[in-house]
Amino acid sequence: MDRRNAATTRAQGRSGLRAASLALAGALALGVSQAGAEDASLQPVGPTLELAQLDRSGSFDFAEPGVVRLAASATSADAMQHLEIERGKSLFVRTEYTVRRVSVGDPETLDVVVLSPRELQFVAKKIGATNVVLWDPQGTPQAALDVHVGTPHSQVESEIQRVLGNPDVKVDSAGESIVLKGSVANALASEQAMTVARGFFPGKQENVINLLEVGGDQQVMLEVVVAEMSRTLRREMGTNFRVFHVGDNHTAEIFSFLNNLSSLSDDAASTALDVSDAINLVGSFTVGSDIYQVLFDVLHEKGLGKILAEPTLVARSGETASFLAGGEIPIPIAQGGAFGSITIEFKEFGVGVAFTPTVMAADRIHLKVAPEVSAPDFTLGATSGGLTVPGFTTRRASTAVELADGQSFAIAGLLRDDVAQLVDQYPVLGEIPVLGVLFRSSQFQKNESELVMIVTPHLVKPLPPGEHHLPTDHFVEPNAFEFYLLGALEGRTWGSSHDDDSAQETGGLIGDVGHTVAAAPEGEAR
Q: Which listed site, 189, 258, 362, 437, has its alpha carbon 20 to 30 Å from 86?
């Protein structure tokens, strides 16, 4: 029992001593706080935390991970410091001087936890900016920390570096967003970095800003071959006739104006016919006193066409280039209003192609191609205000493929087979066998065409500085003697080694990009 009472007495003594020590420390801190408050020039802005007085020394650095070391400032400029903290994380600050007072500008953004007179912990609560001021025991501001709390990004950076295996990719915060910086080898790596970063922002894809620099060759030359063969077949057969019958005491005339192949003359006193341009055969004969005239539109037409275009375009990765081999047709557009004004707009037609290349890797190109072939067709047009506006027959395709440098792909199967038949005839009479030919007009038209496009992308580089080969390098204008007497279209420099040079200039690919064309046609002597 005596031992138990003695232990209880000792415990109570230690508790009393600890309470007395805490009371003394509180009294000293309160006295220091009141003494400091008397100096109006050192009044803090915002909440303050009072600390005990100790000595000071040290420097500002990040020698230890997650630890900021603050040194005493020699000048007011040295007191200004900048810190960045990710939201939801904390930063340990160690000063090598005694801190007596701490002022936080916005406690909602940053919380300061006092660990000891030389150790503080900054806890980032929300995205924003604030400042923290530290005073020494003499009442002198030793540090004015401008603290920026940003979006968490260190985990994003480490994950991107791990996935890509590229330590050059850095991630910074910018308000609610993050910024990807650094360099990657190709566009594919850039897209992969964006995909990883967006995974941390579900539903907020716009919070990822891509400032990555893409290395490698980013220019693409596209060689396109557009080949089309078309065949047309047209048959027409139509008749108009005139019968003039003279009797003993009467006359009669019968006309056929089917399909407007002919018409009456504008002269009312004349019975002659005005013949259209479609009439290519006329027959006239007399039986007794009767006169018979037959007008024929007989046609058998065949056509064969070939279209070959070989455009070569160069575009930067991710941008669109286009080409058109054709022309433009003026289209009248009514503007309305009291005066009924009409403006002219031009509609393009011909063989066109637009492509958008994206360099995915050193030997991988993603290509979006949109070729189009169009031609005016007046049979599809409309007439307005006495003006005939043509329609257009158009064939277009759009596709996306991935190729290696120099590989080709073809867009084929663009076939067209149109058949049109038209018969104009008189009722009943046009149905009569053989003789019904005189009472009807028949048209048959067939169009067949096939279009093939072959596309070949190349990664290219600009030519180095200096002189470059041109198709006109070895062209010499003929003088009067060569042109008139020798019939030469090209002159020559007598006594020079031009022939030897021209034998070497056979055309073809120059380095990484470009073509040369021989001045003389293939197979023709210079």
A: 189
